[in-house]
From TrEMBL:
PANTHER family: BUCENTAUR RELATED, ENDONUCLEASE_EXONUCLEASE_PHOSPHATASE DOMAIN-CONTAINING PROTEIN. This is Endonuclease/exonuclease/phosphatase domain-containing protein. Pfam families: Exo_endo_phos (PF03372). Residues 7-173 form the Endonuclease/exonuclease/phosphatase domain. One of its GO terms (molecular function) is catalytic activity. Transmembrane segments: none annotated.
């Protein structure tokens, strides 16, 4: 049975005390995932503290997250929203590495497995040492994934990988957008080292569907 995966920067899953809505943000997110028939979504910028899980019974998804400590500023945060009927196929519950990385392993047919990574990379304004630390940790996760596993890395990389297919022909396709920035270069180097492809550059799509956000510059 095919499994549909996706990534979504939800901006926050925190509910304000004075929010004038009858449903939690997690319930609203779950409804949208159900509408688009997404089985597993990697969530970024969740802003939940520490690690935890929450089941939305009506919408049919369970949320798992990994964030900063309770006493720290509520920024970043990653997680997964997984359809409840897939929970039993997980070899274990999703594991939080830190507030920017979380992994899960899903059993496929037979003795085959898929490792899925949820990422939220530092923005361009973060210091270089923060960016380097993120990519070093992601590199460790990828390198430790069994070679026979299917590997899917999802998330918000706050990066532009550009369209220089001649320089990065084994990483990006013919449908990239614009030029590469420094964050994009970090992502491209990681992908090249581990023989990964930036899949959204492989398909001919309208510009609005090729990017999730574009700077006004």
């Amino acid at each position: 049975i095919p499994i549909t995966v996706g990534a979504w920067n939800v901006r926050t899953l925190l509910d304000k005390d004075d929010a004038n809505r009858p449903e939690r943000r997690t319930a609203l997110v779950a409804k949208e995932l159900s509408r688009y028939k997404v089985d597993i979504a990697a969530l970024s910028e969740t802003r939940f503290a520490e690690e935890g899980q929450l089941r939305e019974l009506k919408a049919g998804y369970t949320f798992f997250w990994s964030g900063r400590g309770k006493d720290e500023r509520r920024e970043s945060g990653v997680g997964f929203a997984i359809k409840n009927d897939l929970i039993g196929k997980l070899t274990s519950l999703p594991k939080g590495v830190n507030d920017r990385l979380m992994t899960l392993t899903l059993q496929l047919k037979g003795k085959r497995y898929a490792t899925i990574v949820s990422c939220y990379a530092p923005t361009m304004t973060n210091p270089d040492d923060i960016k380097d630390k993120f990519y070093e940790e992601l590199d460790t996760i990828i390198a430790s994934t069994p070679k026979q596993d299917k590997l899917v890395v999802l998330g918000d990389f706050n990066a532009r990988v550009g369209s220089d297919v001649e320089a990065w022909d084994e990483v990006i396709g013919k449908h990239g957008v614009g030029s590469c920035n420094s964050n994009g270069l970090l992502l491209l180097r990681l992908c090249a080292e581990h023989h990964l492809s930036v899949t959204n550059t492989l398909f001919q799509l309208p510009i609005r569907n090729k990017t999730t956000w574009m700077h006004s510059r």
